[in-house]
Amino acid sequence: MTGRPTWQILAGTVSALAAIGVGVGFAVAQDRPSLNLYGATGLIDMPSAESQPDGTLSASFSRFGPISRTTLSFQLSPRISGSFRYSGVRDWNSFCPACPGGAFETYYDRSFDLRYQILEETDRLPALAIGLQDFVGTGLLAGEYLVATKNLTPNLKVTGGLGWGRLGSYGAIGSPFGDRPPLVVGAGGKFDAGQWFRGPAAPFAGIEWKIDRDWTLKAEYSSDDYAEEAGLRRTFQRSSPFNFGLEYQRNDYFRFGAYYMYGSEVGVAAHFFLNPKQRPGIGIQDGAPDVIKPRPSRTAAPEAYDAGWVEQPGVADILIKNLNKRLTVDGIHAAGIRFTGSTATVTAENNRYDAEAQFIGRVARAMSNVMPASVETFEIIPLVNGIPASRVLIRRSVLEQSEMAANATEAVRAQTRIAEAGPLRGTGLTYDPDLYPKFNWGLSPYVLTSFFDPDHPLRADLGARLSARFEPLPGVVVSGAVTKAIVGNLSDSTRVSDSVLPRVRSESNLYDREGDPALEHLTAAVYFRPAPQLYGRVTAGYLERMFAGVSVEVLWKRVDSPFALGAEVNYARQRDYDQGFGLRDYDVITGHVSGYYDFGQGYNAQLDVGRYLAGDMGATLTLRRKFATGWEVGVFATLTDVSFDDFGEGSFDKGITLKIPVTWGLGTPSKRNLSATIRPVLRDGGARLNVQDRLYETIRNYDEAGIDAQWGRFWK
Amino acid sequence: MGKVLEMTLRQSIIFCAVAALLAACGTEKQADPLTGGVKAIMAPLGQALGGKRGPAPTVPRTNLEQLGVPVTVGEIAATHTKFYIVPIAQTGSVETWSTSDDITATFRDGVLAATRGLRADLMESATPSAARLRSGSGTTVRQYGVLDGGDRLVRFNYTCQLSNLGTETISVLGRQHLTHHVAESCQGSGPPFTNDYWFESSGKIRKSSEVMFPGLAQVLLSRVVDK
Q1: Domain carrying residue A141
Q2: Interface membership of A98 toward B (CB under 8 Å)
Q3: pLDDT per residue over A161-182, tens digit each?
Q4: What topology is assigned to B61-225 in CATH?
């Protein structure tokens, strides 16, 4: 019984069914620790020793009196958390126009925190944590602490700690580790290690009482004197060390708080939590796959196993057409095929699935329906930009036996091998004649943002992007995109770069202002496999919004090794601000040798050593955590031979990267991501070229670790 | 030919230019990040504004019989959802049935054993045989494997107690059937649940009420047309 009869009268009655299961099963409300006004786990203005559930990402907005803080926090590992904060103090110079530190109506400052939970709470002992607040920056918010938190009853917890820096500025009990040396701020952005845990130390404490599931009362004794804000500049009056708050947990995602701060000010806070580990809608909604088609038994139908079909003229064309009949609906294209009587190899492009395993599963299902019975081994080669990324070997009989097994997922993985795919040239593949040349285009909205301009901390443009992609041959991609802003204020920025380096990035506002419409990129790229384990790319044209040129990259990578090594050399010439076809005079040879290491559990590191856009030499270290859902959170820092003074504000390039898969929010399959790089300040030192589709990131999802991360989707 | 193509391309670009403010278009069929985000935010709003579906209409038996294939009607009382499935594949005692919009349910020996095309699918399972259930006494063992929001397989294990609830005459879309009612009460690593089966004397399950997997609403399956 095969094929699907038509039954129009029943159509349209069931689409509501597909959404079944949204939010069921796993959405157990977490009793997560609360955040403080710094957006870090804690009381009101003071930290606590608790940790958020592993992987939690939170955005916090808080305000009291003249103080406002916007913080992004991430629970990097079960014990380590980090925060990046943008804070402002209003009326900075109102009372004290002659105070040092420049004239600002509102003083904006960026800061990073890092915290380590030394001990988890036990029945008898409290949790214990050590933390650094604003440890790399101007040091305005700098403070260090050692803190303990204990749940006395399920609804009552107490916190006590000792603070240094600004957390030791009120009610100090002495300086156990000596004096705190004065901070030389300079351009900011440097590690202030000499100050940590030095100078006066002061105790702080607080209590948190959970009234019911949603409401919490907090009270704390703060050891922060606000010497600069309240004392010197009198932006508010600090008349008491006690703070009080009432918080409301709306659901897993939102928490709100109202506070009475320092005996004089009212405060408010809103916290937004995300869990990159789990999609909010849990599952992915997609059409059911083809059922594995069983073969007749060899004894009952020996003629079905005759491999004589291999010799039939035109059989490859027929098979690939039949495969694509089944796969097109899944956004998959079988590009090439080769076979012997017992093995069939299919190269295929995945244009839909964020989960590589699901893509492989769908190809395997199609093959079981299409390939003659004598074929026992399926070899599936995923193609990325036309080149093979790996080779997945599955036994057909295992598919047949395990599809309905109670342990179907593990059973098929145990018998599946993920191996190297060498170059495809000369391997006897028959290509789908309909696949090339391939042309795709799209028109979609876009948003471009700019953060932390003191005149206007958040600027954004909304516009339309027209993009096109032409692939005349496997591995050859000509692509381009044009953007036109429709509304926004990016072009309002009049900030003039004060950089003493070649202005490779610091004039980005000129590109925003003059590039409307803009040719975002227009490139021709060739991807190739020079040898087994080697991947290559050459890209030429208008590479990115600020640079044109030629980029050559080679990557050595095994599918079963955590280590990979790459090298990239670029000739880049600066583009005109209007982002048309014109070029400016500045050009540079830039490039890097890159080492990549996958630590497992989604943690990976990348070290790039080489020459940057401004001609400076140095290295970038990037640490990333990638979740099975496709979320990626990373931090990076670049040190080059440009001095901190020459670099300017921030002293060196550093920032946070976020990659959010569209699938995570939508619950429908897609390979697209929203990416953001958040830098405290964008300067010219340590700047890299933004070339599209660098090899490592495009290939690695198809290695063993990449496929295994979402193996659960193989049978989906 | 070229002219026609040009016109079509130009027209679609103009159409898209208008549409682009609200949506993405082109040959790329994947969800666009921005448009997708807007849709994701708007979807619950639409539901809140009364976009909820009413009960699905009932298709008369004669229309179902005209299809010329077996038909099972499914109902999820909790969501007022009704669906119709027909068999599309069979391997031994394993049968896969599908809705008209590509949602499938697979039955092992007549007992729901897997689903596909739903957000939360029953990915894999161990289920008792129909004969074991029909006995109406003793215990059965069940296992459910489902994916969490990070595509990790989560298993639920259950032990169930069978009980014989006697003979019942049931009505399935206007036709009376004499059946034997068996209940299967399950306790395990997830929420408890009870499945019900109505067997005919031939051993066929005429009607059943089964959980797709623990924590999910029960689905009532009525085998309307046998062919």
Answers
A1: 57-274
A2: no
A3: 999 999 999 999 999 999 998 8
A4: YmcC-like fold (2.40.360)
